[in-house]
Amino acid sequence: HGPGHQPADPVPAPTADIGLDRAVAAARAAGVDSASIAVTLPAEGSGYVVKETDKQFPVELDQVALDPVDGTVLDRLAFAEYPLLAKLTRIGIDAHTGVFLGLFNQLALAALALALILMIVWGYRMWWLRRPRRPVGRGAWRKLPVTLLLPLAATAAVLGRFVPLLGVSLLVLLAAEVVLALVNRRARTR
Fold first, then answer.
1. Residues of the chain with pLDDT under 50
2. I need a labelling partner for 47 at 20 to 30 A (CA). Which of 11, 173, 183, 187 fits?
């Protein structure tokens, strides 16, 4: 090989790994005992992460991080240690998406949606039956006092800024009102 040849760098010895089965067994021994779990395999400089994923009744969403060499618990995050608002947020999200308590939660959400639809339809029906027979004349808003009109306009502008779909709807209605007023004015002058 000649005099200038350097010896090759030694090949690093493969690191020991407990494997997936032993990692799950170590996590179960550490208290992650749900039937539904997720395991994140170790990456460079990290260990196994085993966490419970059963959201049907999410009061035990514990997780542990395990050393991939010997299976010791490096870190533990227990649902019981969450602050109260974090627990309520987790349960609220699961209830809102329909996974909390399974079929019962989904039926309750379907009943709520149906009740809202029926209330909207019945509300329009009640208005239609009791609607004013004599329409309010155009420009009736001009009769409002300025002390009431300016705060209403400012509130509409702020709402339109922070809720853009509402703002666009208000602008479309205002534009339609202006066009109708111009059409009526031209029709009266003829």
1. 11-13
2. 11
The residue type at 176: A
Calpha distance 108→114 (Å, rounded): 10
CA 135 centroid distance within chain: 43
Residues 6+ apart with CB under 8 A from 55: 61, 94, 99, 100
Contacts of 185 (CB under 8 A, 6+ apart): none
Instruction: Classify strands 63-66 and 37-40 as parallel, antiparallel or unpaired.
Output: unpaired
The DSSP letter of residue 14 is P
Question: CA of 17: how far to CAs of 22, 66, 117, in Å?
Answer: 9, 11, 57
**Token duo for residue 36:** 């539904």
The whole-model pTM stands at 0.51
For the stretch 53-106, pLDDT in tens is 877 777 778 889 998 888 888 888 888 888 999 989 988 888 888 888 888 989
Structure tokens at 46: 């990290």
Cβ-based neighbour number of residue 154 at 10 Å:
10
Rounded Cα distance between 66 and 50, Å, is 8
Q: Hey, which residues does 40 pair with through a beta bridge? A: 49
